[in-house]
Write a structure and sequence with these properties.
about 375 residues; alpha/beta; Rossmann fold; UDP-galactose 4-epimerase, domain 1; 2 domains; seven-stranded parallel β-sheet; two-stranded parallel sheet; 13 strands; binds NADPH dihydro-nicotinamide-adenine-dinucleotide phosphate; binds guanosine-5'-diphosphate-rhamnose; NADP+ binding
């Protein structure tokens, strides 16, 4: 496809005069955290829409890249690390993206107590480094604001920023009270994104996303731990599943739906932050009950409470008020909690049933 008048292919050369949001064929996205759950869905959806998709990948031999290549072949890779400012500048210079999605993070909440400083560096300061890379490469300064065709930036903010909430459901105006080093780091990332928008006029937005899950979810998170656990027990590979706090309540949705919301936020006229969730809550106990029943099991015969999985400070209840996203983005979740858990249980039963030596690899998050 050529642009009228200038005759250049938009995917090879930037053509700012003829760029438009309605023309996804001309757009290029850079995703940090592309080897994670959300990165995979986002990359797939952007490729389907004709984007050129680049993933920032850390390490000299990142084992997750093979999985990514196997499932999503058309992604292009550039190396970089959210801990390394120079590598992010090089990546932005090389890719010349129209959109940057910053999904990279230490995202497992318990890990953030074990490695609090690293979590602050990756999950918090990493956001600042990515914003700085965009600012420097775009030549933006207090005296030189970005032009109309600036790089659009999405930050993966989290409902964990709400933490200990006194009002429910939570919306874009609910005060933050994070309860973990992860939540504190995300809150820094959220505010620095807002600050770059206000200081430099950058198109920088945060999606405050509530828990979202899928068959690609890491095995350390409670939904996947439960669906893998139920599948293992069903197939005779285990007899028990050890869990922490069954009373915690969450607003769980499907990751594919949430990846679509990220794109919608970058398609708006004005940069704004949005809460994304279903507005419905279930407890961990409800999750366990539904998953085990789906697998034809009684959870009370198998689940063992184990203090090793309780947290120094818990987030008891999170429930989204996604009214703004519904009204301004036209976003609605498509997959219910019941459909989500059924999808995950069936996927894990297939995964473990198909595996030649399932006992060697049941909890590997490398299985998509
Ligand atoms: P995952 O844990 O599945 O993926 C995290 C990604 O971050 C991986 O690709 C990992 O890459 C990458 N990463 C880790 N450290 C670095 C680093 N130093 N430099 C660059 N990349 C790094 O997370 P999800 O896909 O579930 O979540 C995506 C984002 O959304 C995260 O920021 C998370 O905190 C946030 N979020 C998630 C929610 C959810 O319910 N899933 C809800 C709200 C927010 P590697 O292959 O190198 O390990
Ligand atoms: P969360 O997700 O901390 O909300 O963060 P997780 O699935 O880890 O925990 C949800 C709730 O389940 C309780 N729980 C257990 N959790 C785990 N992981 N393992 C257990 O054995 C267990 N037993 C009970 C937890 O105490 C908690 O209350 C996720 C991550 O994706 C973050 O990156 C993201 O920002 C938030 O969701 C929104």
């Amino acid at each position: 496809m050529f642009h009228t008048g200038c005759g250049i292919r938009p995917r090879q050369v930037r053509c700012p005069t003829h760029f438009s949001q309605e023309d996804p064929l001309s757009r290029r996205a850079l995703i940090t955290g592309i080897t994670g759950q959300d990165g995979s869905y986002l990359a797939e959806q952007l490729l389907e829409r004709g984007y050129e998709v680049w993933g920032l990948v850390r390490g000299q031999a990142n084992p997750h890249v093979a999985r990514l290549r196997k499932h999503i072949g058309d992604v292009q890779i550039t190396t970089g690390d959210l801990l390394d400012q120079g590598s992010l500048i090089s990546a932005v210079e090389r890719v010349q993206p129209d959109e940057v999605y910053n999904l990279g993070a230490i995202s497992y909440v318990p890990m953030s107590w074990q490695q609090a400083e690293l979590t602050a560096e990756v999950t918090g300061m990493g956001v600042l480094r990515m914003l700085e890379a965009i600012r420097v490469v775009s030549g933006i300064s207090p005296s030189r604001t970005p032009g109309r065709e600036q790089i659009r930036f999405y930050q993966a903010s989290s409902s964990e920023m709400f933490g200990m909430v006194r009002e429910t459901p939570q919306n874009e105006r609910t005060p933050f009270h994070p309860r973990s080093p992860y939540g504190v780091a995300k809150t820094y990332g959220h505010y620095i994104t807002q600050n770059y928008r206000e200081s430099y006029g950058m198109f920088a937005v945060s999606g405050i996303l509530f828990n979202h899950e899928s068959p690609r979810r890491g095995a350390e998170f409670v939904t996947r731990k439960v669906t893998l656990g139920a599948a293992r027990i069903k197939l005779g590979l285990a007899t028990e599943l050890r869990l922490g706090n069954l009373e915690a309540r969450r607003d769980w949705g499907f990751a594919g739906d949430y990846a679509r919301a990220m794109q919608l936020m970058l398609e708006q006229e004005r940069p704004e932050d949005y809460v994304i969730g279903t507005g419905k809550i279930q407890s961990v106990r409800d999750l366990v009950d539904f998953a085990f029943t789906s697998a034809g099991l009684n959870w009370q015969d198998h689940v063992v409470l184990d203090d090793r999985y309780t947290r120094p400070a818990e987030v008891d209840l999170l429930c989204a008020d996604p009214k703004k996203a519904r009204e301004e983005l036209g976003w609605e979740p498509q997959v219910s909690f019941e459909q989500l858990v059924t999808m995950m249980v069936e996927s894990d039963l297939r995964l473990l049933g198909d595996s030649a030596r399932p006992e060697d690899e049941p909890f590997s998050p490398d299985h998509w």
